Amino acid sequence: MALDSRSLTPAQRYALVLVDLTVGFTDPQRSPLASACDAVVAANAQLLEAFRRRGWPVFFTTVAYDDPAQARVFREKLPVLDVLQAGSPLVEIDPRLEPGPDEPVIVKFWASAFFGTNLAELIRQAGADGVMVTGLTTSGCVRATAVDALQHDFRVLIPEQATGDRDAQAHAANLRDLNIKYADVRSVEECLALLG
Q1: Is residue 113's pLDDT more than 80?
Q2: Which of 15, 17, 31, 45 lies at 20 to 30 Å from 187 by C-alpha?
Q3: β partners of residue 60
């Protein structure tokens, strides 16, 4: 039996959360975690420009470890995460999406951008009641961040082309599931239209 899933009322003000659009996830020549995602980066650049033009808040995330005790069980499960060492070029935001001076880069250790960080507080301080979640990867950190955003009572919107995954089937399945239960998945064009 299908769930009675409804579209969310649009937020009054969105914050853009760009999840892990770092060299470690965008440059397959340099990182085992990365995938070919030029189209995802380009879609994020479009959204970034629109948010900046409107003056709405923007937050980036990166995963960067400087202590073996950080997220130790997560790293035991996925040892490849150890390449994301603080100070490494792999944890820097992709230069095509250079953060502005008033756009914080939230350092996280786990999948969700909210877990163990002050992101929810910063979003509320910025006067946002909704979050557009973009980035990499759909089945991992994007999903975890979107679910946690809902659990913080934010209206969650996911611009479809601004997310990506190493696994196309996982990408599609997770977007479908997120759209049913936790967020509204819309095209980048529909999301841009909300920004005016």
Answers
A1: yes
A2: 31
A3: 18, 105
CATH number at residue 18: 3.40.50.850
DSSP letter for 21, please.
Answer: -
**Domain boundaries, position 181:** 14-195
Residue 39 lies in a domain: yes
Q: What percent of the chain has pLDDT over 70?
A: 100
* Parallel/antiparallel/unpaired status of strands 155-159 and 163-164: unpaired
How far, in Å, CA of 73 to CA of 90, rounded?
21
Q: Tell me which residue has tokens 């937050």.
A: 59
Query: Largest alpha-carbon pair distance within the chain?
Result: 50
For the chain, how many residues are written?
A: 196
Asked whether the bond before 9 is cis by omega within 30 degrees of 0, the reply is no
In a domain, 1, yes or no: no
- Is the CA virtual torsion 117, 121, 133, 58 positive or negative? negative
Number of separate domains in the chain: 1
**Residue-wise pLDDT tens digits, 44-73:** 999 999 999 999 999 999 999 999 999 999
Active site residue ranges: 141
Decide if 86 is inside a domain.
Answer: yes
Cβ proximity of 146 and 174 under 8 Å: no
Tell me whether residue 8 is in a domain. Answer: no
| φ/ψ (deg, to 5) at 19 | -85, 115
Label each residue of 82-114 as H, E or C: HHCECCCHHHCECHHHCCCCCCCEEEECCCCCC
